[in-house]
């Protein structure tokens, strides 16, 4: 009886959380398909006719073609170097039993607790002295450096769980250290890599403060900064078009999640337990 009541309670709590989480998303999606009049008169109702042209209008007004290209470029390059560097660091920390391992991990953990607002202006000043302010390169370097602590922390936990006998067996077959990294550690670490990739993709794609502060040239803006600028400028009170733009921004995140979702829980659990 107690178990049944407990399960029912958990089910109710999860249902409430799901409703609270999904309701704003569903409302934005439905609102993006309304006319401006329906948005004012029927804020919670369904549109009489789905206004798919709102997405075309948002794409054209926000110049999403350029913004999307910038965001894809920044995100792709940042993730490639972030995954490469963090996996190498995590492999080295666990493979060679670095004496300062705990100190390095503590440094990585502290790096995750520092808010973006605290370091934004120092980063801008540093990039300006290096001649990298205003362009994509400076923002990409900032994202790579900012994403390393989380990536290394997650992946070292997974690498630490790889049996050392696998490395020894590969070495007996003539494997070099690079072979151990490429052919032993990386294939076994796919769940961890997918977890890092998904979380860092969501962070880089949605990040606003650094992108808004570092990028000064309009043609280099990311999609999230471009959407903000349009909503506060050209669109003014045209909320349906703004909502359509918000949906467009979310589409890549949903696609990436659907592709890597099967690795997400496995990677998080492995990193938490084995670390």
Q: Give the CATH architecture.
A: Orthogonal Bundle
Q: Low-confidence segments, ≥5 residues, pLDDT <50?
A: 271-275
How much helix, percentage-wise, in residues?
over 70%
**CATH hierarchy, class:** Mainly Alpha
Rg, nearest Å = 23 Å
**Through-space gap between termini:** 38 Å
In terms of structural class, how would the helical and strand content be classed?
mainly alpha
CATH topology: MetI-like fold
Largest sheet features: none
What is the overall silhouette?
Answer: globular
Elements, N to C (H/E): HHHHHHHHHHHHH
Looking at CATH, the homologous superfamily is MetI-like
Strand content: under 5%
How many structural domains does the protein architecture include?
1
Count of individual beta strands: 0
Number of helices: 13
Mean pLDDT: 83
Question: If you had to describe this structure to a student in words, what would you say it looks like?
Answer:
The chain is an all-alpha fold. It has one domain (55-274): Orthogonal Bundle (MetI-like fold), CATH 1.10.3720. The chain has helices at 2-31, 36-41, 53-61, 64-95, 101-113, 116-130, 136-159, 164-172, 177-188, 190-206, 209-214, 223-231, 239-274. Helix 4 packs parallel to helix 7 (136-159). The radius of gyration is 23 Å and the shape is globular. The chain starts with a helix and ends with a helix.
Keywords:
275 residues; mainly alpha; MetI-like fold; 79% helix; disordered C terminus
Task: Furnish the topology, listing elements before pairings.
Elements: H1 2-31, H2 36-41, H3 53-61, H4 64-95, H5 101-113, H6 116-130, H7 136-159, H8 164-172, H9 177-188, H10 190-206, H11 209-214, H12 223-231, H13 239-274
Helix pairs in contact: 3-13, 4-7, 4-10, 5-7, 7-10, 7-13, 8-9, 10-13, 12-13
